[in-house]
Specification:
Layout lengths: L1 E6 L3 H10 L8 E7 L4 E2 L4 H6 L8 E2 L7 E5 L2 E5 L4 E4 L2 E4 L2 E4 L3 E3 L7 H4 L6 H12 L6 E5 L3 H13 L4 E5 L11 H13 L2 E4 L4 E5 L2 E4 L2 E4 L2 E4 L3 E3 L1 H4 L18 E2 L2 E6 L12 H19 L15 E6 L3 E6 L2 E4 L1 H17 L2
Parallel strand pairs: 1-2, 1-9, 2-5, 9-20, 11-12, 11-17, 12-13
Antiparallel strand pairs: 3-4, 6-7, 7-8, 10-18, 14-15, 15-16, 19-20, 21-22, 22-23
GO molecular function: NADH dehydrogenase (quinone) (non-electrogenic) activity
Keywords: FAD, Flavoprotein, Oxidoreductase
Enzyme class: oxidoreductase
C-alpha cells in the first residue's frame, strides 16, 4: 500500500482532497493528513477572532469525512526528504508522495524586540491569545497595529467596531495605504479610518519594540499592546529544507509544483515560490493543478508540456461589518457591495466544503 501524505490542512490541501476523494485516489493508496489542529481553519478571518467579533467556531470547519483519510494531529518536527519520512513528535510516517502545505509565520525583519513584545494573528491559537489580551485592555488603551496590508487594515477596522473605547494606530511604511493599487481604493479606506477615528501613521519604520513602547523612526511612543502584521515567511521547518530556497524563504518549484530534486514532493500555498502574493485563492488554484498532475501520473498518462498560468482575480477586504473594498479584474469596488461580495465568497466556500 502506497501512502500520500498531506502536511497541513489549509486551503491548498483541502482543495487537493476535494479533487481526489472519493474516487480519483487509487485503491492501492492510503491518504494521511497531518495537522496540529483537528479542523480546517479559515485563516483570512483570523482578524475577526482577534478583534472579538467572531468566536473560533465560526472560523473553522471539519476536514472531509472520508474513511480513506488517516488523520495525525501534532507538531511536525522533521521532514526527511531522502528517506521519505515525516516525524510528528515520536510518530514516524512513511510516504510515497508528499504535499507540503504548512503555511507561514510572522516575519519580523530583524526588528529588535518585535517577536518578544508583539502579538500575532498568524495561527488560530495566536489569534485567540491576541483576543484574550485585547479584551483585558482598559478604556482608552492604545493599540498599535504594525503593517497596513490587508490583514492590518481588516484588523484595525474590525477592532474599531468591537472596541469603540480604544485608541487604534495603524503604522504604514508607505505614503498611502495599498500603494500598488488604485488611489481610489486607498482614499476610500483612509476616509473610513478618519471617520471612525483610527489613526493611520504613514512613512512609518518600526525599528524597535519594547514592553509598552515602540520606536517609529527611532522616536519612542508609548503603547499598551502591539499586533504585528508587517510580513510573513514560510514556517521554519520549510525554510531549512535541503532544497533550493528563494530570497523570501519559499521553496523553488518546477512548473508541476514539485521540488525539482524530489519530484514526489509538492509544495502548496504560502511555502511555494510563485509569481503572486500568498493568499487562500492562490493556494486553491495551485491545489487544483497539483491534483491534476497527480491524477495524470496515477493513470500513467504524460504530463502537459506546459501548465496553464495561474491567474488571480483580485482580492476582497472588509471594513467592519457593513463596508468593504475590493480589487477584482482590474476594477475597484467599495462600500456595501464589496462587503456583500466578501460574505458571499465565504458562504460559498463553507457550502462547497460541507
Amino acid at each position: 500500500m502506497k501512502n500520500l501524505v498531506l502536511l497541513g490542512g489549509g486551503y491548498g490541501n483541502m482543495r487537493i482532497m476535494s479533487h481526489i476523494l472519493p474516487n480519483a485516489l487509487p485503491k492501492d493508496y492510503s491518504l494521511t493528513l497531518v495537522d496540529r489542529m483537528p479542523y480546517h481553519s479559515l485563516k483570512p478571518e483570523f482578524y475577526e477572532l482577534a478583534a472579538g467579533t467572531k468566536s473560533d467556531k465560526d472560523i473553522r470547519m471539519n476536514f472531509p469525512d472520508s474513511p480513506r483519510i488517516n488523520t495525525v494531529y501534532g507538531e511536525i518536527t522533521e521532514i526527511d526528504l531522502d528517506d521519505q519520512i515525516v516525524s510528528v513528535g515520536n510518530t514516524k510516517i512513511d510516504y510515497d508522495e508528499l504535499v507540503i502545505g504548512l503555511g507561514c509565520e510572522d516575519k519580523y525583519h530583524n526588528v529588535p524586540g518585535a517577536e518578544e513584545h508583539t502579538f500575532s494573528i498568524q495561527t488560530l491559537s495566536k489569534s485567540r491569545e491576541t483576543f484574550h489580551h485585547i479584551s483585558e485592555l482598559p478604556n482608552g488603551a492604545k493599540v498599535g497595529i504594525v503593517g497596513a496590508g490587508l490583514s492590518g487594515i481588516e484588523l484595525a477596522s474590525e477592532l474599531r467596531e468591537s472596541r469603540s473605547d480604544l485608541d487604534i494606530y495603524l503604522y504604514d511604511r508607505g505614503e498611502r495605504i495599498l500603494p500598488r493599487f488604485p488611489e481610489k481604493l486607498s482614499r476610500y479606506i483612509e476616509k473610513w479610518f478618519k471617520k471612525n477615528d483610527v489613526t493611520v501613521v504613514p512613512n512609518s519604520n518600526i525599528n524597535r519594540v519594547e514592553d509598552g513602547r515602540i520606536f517609529n523612526n527611532d522616536i519612542p511612543e508609548d503603547v499598551d499592546l502591539v499586533v504585528w502584521t508587517a510580513g510573513i515567511q514560510p514556517v521554519d521547518i520549510v525554510r531549512n529544507l535541503p532544497v533550493d530556497i528563494s530570497k523570501s524563504g519559499r521553496v523553488i518549484l518546477n512548473q508541476y509544483h514539485q521540488i525539482p530534486t524530489y519530484k514526489n514532493v509538492y509544495v502548496v500555498g504560502d511555502c511555494a515560490e510563485l509569481p503572486h502574493a500568498p493568499s487562500a485563492q492562490l493556494a486553491e488554484a495551485q491545489g487544483d493543478q497539483i491534483a491534476d498532475v497527480m491524477k495524470l501520473q496515477w493513470q500513467g498518462k504524460p504530463l502537459p508540456e506546459k501548465m496553464s498560468e495561474i491567474k488571480i482575480q483580485g482580492f476582497l477586504g472588509s471594513l467592519g461589518e457593513k463596508q468593504g473594498f475590493a480589487y477584482i479584474m482590474d476594477r475597484t469596488v467599495t462600500g456595501r457591495l464589496a462587503s456583500i461580495l466578501k460574505s458571499g465568497v465565504l458562504w460559498l466556500y463553507k457550502y462547497h466544503n460541507g
